[in-house]
């Protein structure tokens, strides 16, 4: 809001004002923040935000969440904030800021741009525009009443926060503590945001006696009697808004409240409203029925049906504004200063009065097609008793949400339609088949929204409507869908094989049906996932039936299942089948199968060692399936692609991908995959606390016995504990996850072994350092136990290709040697350095170089090889942003007195006669002198003799007029300050 005015009556929040003032100052300095202000209704959250923003020189954009009968409007507060900016920006600023963002017209119809909308791009476009606005002038985006924000807005805000780096931008949200029941989406949003840097929270407590006295003094212009202040505090519970209402009309000289002052919340809220004129009270009652900020034009038309002249609306709103009852936003809409008053006024209407006003709103809104909000009309019709129209507008609102790729909002509307079914006219809703269709659609949307438990309930209801003897194929399809949803909703372990078998039995009389092919496919995939027999036979049967069924979708699903089963032992064949399935699924628009095929393709490519291809294709599949409406499982693709990018040492690309994926806040298995990647990247980047938060969230999202992610969870758990300095605990925690399994470990478990050996070696080192032989023995025994219990020679299946196999074997052997403290450690680590380089794994190679140098230096001799290893490891750590590794390398270099500075080319400017007189080779040598290298080190780097280096150094001293190599280096640094 552009013209915020300070409220000089604001009192009792000095500490909070200072905190938020510092936040805004940080934004000016390029440090972004997202702050949520929590507190009960009337505690002063919005008032605090206004006060702080009014004193700042920042650009303030204000958006409010809409709460109307449980309906939610996608992107409502975001659109409000952007509309606030639009109302004040000039034509040039609009053109520059909105360039290339035509799709935002879906949120801002006033832009007047028409065309198709890729809804998956909306969070990115919002982020782009807000950052452009902030670049022009440091900006605060205020979201009022976050507890009512729609999920699409929460996702957009999460995307914005995930991208915080150095923007002059603050996201400031107010949030009621009493508007969040169990299952409220804000719970998971806050849990996820608390794991983000730059995110913070501020909780407003009720005023104490001093704060209440200060508040009254600001309102009445004089210090109140302590008895008055104490009574006000007792009746208001320190709620500033109630304090204001209770003392309105007092002179300040009173010692107690008058007997007529109400003590109940309802009466306190109505105190200011009762002081309005009859007409103003009627206008505000009409406004309350509107359910959300309403334009004066709509209010005027509705009020006209109740005897109010158009010319009286503006004066009535002005009167209500002056009495602190309503506020008017820059876009001309009006709403209550305290939203609770809207609820109180609405509750004061009789059912007939409310229904009449809702009917008037329906008439007015339907006459304005460009302003129609289907979700609002659904609520107005429901409260007017028009159930057929409520059903219709709920479906229209669902279709609108589907177009915006807002599955949560779509699910809310569809669930209302399902609940209304029995009360809607058959001519409007249709018959039993239409009801089953609605339940299936709602179930699918709920699954995409991450609500598999709701999907199970809806599919169970649909099954109850199906006569299995008369409609066996439909029953079979619903059983398969329910089994899959149930697998996701039970902290997944084992899917219900009995339901798949029943689904197959129901199709016995239809041996070539698509339903039978899908049932066999789902059975096979589940059997394969859990290592059960007959998986391949059932997959082949599903493909055979799929071919004869004539259904491309069924065949694509069956081929996908066979690709999954083959992935356990034949990655090339699995890859071919996955590609074929993906083609068929894309051709027929089956996003679920396309998503699954992309996951299987990734697994095959990873197993074959084609990591870069796996990352590229899977990242592209994530964005394409998300755009096609695949729902929460698209985020699983993002998670595994991000993990691959980490191993490819493409950490910046991984951060960008995780920013998008974390903003989606998916739950269950997909959410766990995303957070596993975020945890690993955070560990390696040195953000251990953030990594722990992500990892703990993983353990909340999936069960400990979920086999497909168990190796990854174990790997990252060990790495995290090592970063936390808990090597012995990591050994204890991980051992049963590797050896005490219901089925033999698979090749994915082999990848964990080198890291487990690292933990054991580190635990042994710590024990040796503190003189604890028992601790050393325990670490060695734990490692030997895993070696003895492993059912086969590790890495023989060549997971990741032969180069990766050789790397893992070398790292495994080197860490075993370190744990046992054998004298062959330098040799083992040199082999690890070579194999990591051959595999193209720079981070692992830097680890091996550090360990190799450490082992060499432990012999008491600082060899040139050790120096080179440390410098190369340091260079990799710096370029990757691997803070912990960089710290370890630098510490070792200090102990060994090894200079890690890299030589910087000496390129003199044209007018520098001193350095320009040096030859190219002499400038190369001078660069090494600046880096502090010895003649022997320079000779090795340049492949020349020590004597030749000495000659070059003598020439440098003579040409530069310096007397020592140190002086020559200092001269070069002074002459080339930018280098």
Task: Provide tags for this entry.
979 residues, mainly alpha, 5-stranded parallel beta sheet, 3-stranded antiparallel beta sheet, 8 strands, 65% helix, disordered N terminus
In short:
With about 1000 residues, the chain is mainly α. About 65% of the residues lie in helices and about 5% in strands.
Low-confidence stretches: 1-9, 260-264
Number of strands: 8
Calculate the mean pLDDT score and round it. 88
**Reading side by side through the largest sheet, how are the strands ordered?**
2-3-4-1-5
Radius of gyration: 34 Å
Strand content: under 5%
Shape: globular
Main β-sheet description: 5 strands, parallel
Helix content: 55-70%
SS summary, helix count: 49
Distance, first to last CA = 46 Å
Query: Based on helices, strands and strand pairing, what is the structural class?
Result: mainly alpha
What does this structure look like?
The strands form 2 sheets. The protein has a 5-stranded parallel β-sheet, with helices on both faces. The protein has a 3-stranded antiparallel β-sheet with strand order 6-8-7. It is built from 49 helices and 8 strands. Helix 24 (497-506) runs antiparallel to helix 25 and helix 28 runs antiparallel to helix 29. It is mostly helical and 979 residues long. It starts with 13 loop residues before the first helix and ends with a helix. Helix 6 links the parallel strand 3 and strand 4 (169-176).
């Amino acid at each position: 809001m552009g013209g915020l005015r300070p409220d000089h009556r604001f009192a009792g929040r000095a500490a909070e004002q200072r905190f938020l003032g510092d936040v805004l100052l940080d934004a000016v300095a390029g440090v972004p923040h997202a702050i949520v202000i929590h507190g009960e209704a009337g505690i002063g959250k919005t008032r605090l935000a206004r006060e702080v923003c009014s004193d700042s020189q920042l650009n303030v954009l204000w958006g409010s969440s809409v709460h109307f009968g449980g309906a939610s409007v996608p992107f409502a507060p975001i659109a409000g904030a952007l509309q606030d900016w639009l109302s004040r920006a000039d034509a040039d600023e609009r053109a520059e800021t909105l360039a290339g963002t035509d799709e935002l017209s879906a949120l801002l119809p006033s832009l007047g741009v028409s065309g198709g909308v890729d809804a998956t791009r909306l969070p990115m476009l919002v982020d782009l525009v807000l950052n452009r606005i902030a670049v022009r002038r440091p900006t605060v985006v205020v979201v009022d009443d976050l507890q009512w924000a729609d999920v699409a807005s929460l996702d957009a805000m999460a995307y914005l926060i995930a991208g915080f780096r150095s923007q002059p931008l603050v996201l400031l949200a107010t949030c009621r503590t009493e508007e969040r029941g169990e299952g409220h989406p804000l719970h998971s949003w806050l849990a996820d945001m608390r794991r983000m840097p730059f995110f913070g929270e501020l909780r407003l407590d009720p005023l104490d006696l001093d704060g209440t006295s200060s508040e009254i003094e600001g309102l009445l212009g004089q210090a109140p009697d302590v008895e008055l202040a104490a009574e006000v505090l007792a009746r208001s519970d320190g709620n500033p808004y109630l304090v204001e209402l209770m003392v309105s009309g007092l002179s300040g000289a009173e010692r107690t409240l008058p007997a007529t002052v109400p003590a109940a919340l309802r009466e306190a809220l109505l105190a200011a409203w009762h002081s309005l004129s009859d007409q103003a009270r009627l206008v505000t009652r009409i406004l309350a029925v509107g359910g959300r900020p309403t334009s004066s034009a709509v209010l005027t038309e509705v009020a006209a049906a109740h005897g109010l002249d158009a010319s009286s609306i503006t004066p009535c709103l002005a009167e209500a504004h002056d009495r602190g009852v309503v506020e008017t936003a820059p876009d001309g809409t009006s709403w209550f200063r305290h939203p609770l008053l809207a609820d109180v006024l609405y509750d004061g209407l009789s059912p007939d009065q409310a229904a009449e006003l809702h009917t008037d709103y329906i008439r007015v809104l339907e006459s304005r097609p460009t302003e129609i909000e289907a979700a609002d009309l659904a609520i107005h019709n429901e409260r007017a008793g028009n159930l057929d129209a409520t059903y219709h507008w709920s479906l229209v609102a669902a279709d609108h949400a589907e177009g915006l790729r807002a599955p949560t909002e779509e699910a809310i509307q569809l669930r209302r339609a399902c609940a209304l079914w029995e009360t809607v006219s058959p001519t409007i809703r249709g018959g039993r088949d239409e009801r089953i269709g609605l339940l299936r659609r709602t179930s699918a949307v709920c699954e995409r929204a991450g609500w598999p438990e709701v999907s199970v309930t809806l599919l169970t209801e649909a099954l109850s409507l199906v006569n299995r003897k008369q409609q066996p194929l439909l029953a079979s399809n619903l059983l398969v869908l329910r089994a899959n949803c149930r697998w996701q909703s039970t902290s997944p372990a084992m899917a219900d094989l009995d339901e798949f078998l029943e689904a197959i039995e129901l199709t016995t009389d239809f041996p070539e049906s698509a339903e039978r092919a899908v049932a066999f496919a789902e059975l096979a995939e589940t059997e394969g996932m859990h290592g059960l027999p007959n998986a391949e036979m059932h997959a082949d049967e599903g493909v055979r039936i799929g071919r004869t069924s004539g259904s491309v979708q069924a065949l694509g699903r069956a081929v996908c299942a066979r690709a999954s089963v083959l992935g356990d032992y034949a990655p090339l064949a699995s890859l071919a089948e996955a590609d074929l399935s993906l083609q068929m699924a894309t051709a027929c628009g089956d996003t679920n199968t396309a998503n699954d095929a992309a996951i299987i393709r990734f697994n095959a490519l990873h197993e074959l060692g084609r990591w870069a291809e796996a990352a590229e294709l899977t990242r592209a599949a994530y964005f394409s399936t998300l755009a096609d409406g695949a729902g929460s499982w698209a985020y699983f693709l993002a998670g595994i692609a991000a993990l691959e990018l980490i191993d490819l040492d493409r950490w910046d690309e991984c951060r960008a991908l995780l920013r998008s994926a974390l903003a989606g806040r998916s739950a269950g298995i997909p959410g766990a995959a995303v957070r596993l990647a975020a945890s690993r990247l955070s560990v390696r980047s040195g953000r251990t606390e953030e990594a722990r938060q992500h990892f703990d969230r993983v353990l909340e999202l999936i069960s400990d016995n979920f086999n497909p992610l168990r190796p990854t969870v174990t790997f990252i758990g060990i790495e995290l504990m090592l970063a936390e300095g808990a090597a012995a605990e990591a050994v204890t925690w991980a051992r049963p996850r590797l050896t005490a399994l219901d089925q033999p470990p698979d090749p994915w478990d082999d990848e964990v072994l080198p890291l487990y050996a690292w933990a054991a070696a580190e635990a042994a080192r710590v024990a040796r350092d503190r003189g604890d032989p028992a601790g050393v023995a325990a670490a060695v025994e734990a490692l030997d136990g895993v070696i003895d219990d492993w059912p086969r020679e590790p890495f023989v299946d060549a997971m990741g290709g032969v180069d990766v196999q050789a790397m893992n074997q070398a790292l495994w052997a080197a860490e075993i040697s370190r744990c046992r403290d054998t004298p062959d450690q330098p040799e083992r680590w040199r082999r690890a350095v070579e194999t990591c380089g051959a595999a193209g794994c720079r981070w692992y190679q830097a680890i091996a170089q550090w360990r190799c140098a450490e082992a060499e230096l432990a012999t008491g001799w600082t060899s040139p090889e050790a120096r080179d290893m440390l410098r190369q490891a340091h260079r990799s750590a710096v370029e990757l942003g691997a803070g912990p590794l960089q710290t370890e390398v630098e510490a070792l270099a200090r102990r060994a007195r090894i200079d890690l500075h890299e030589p910087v080319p000496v390129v003199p400017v044209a007018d520098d006669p001193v350095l320009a007189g040096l030859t190219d080779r002499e400038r190369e040598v001078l660069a090494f002198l600046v880096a502090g290298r010895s003649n022997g080190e320079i000779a090795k780097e340049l492949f020349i003799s020590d004597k030749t280096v000495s000659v070059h150094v003598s020439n440098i001293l003579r040409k530069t007029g310096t007397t020592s190599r140190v002086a020559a280096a200092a001269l070069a640094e002074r002459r080339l300050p930018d280098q």
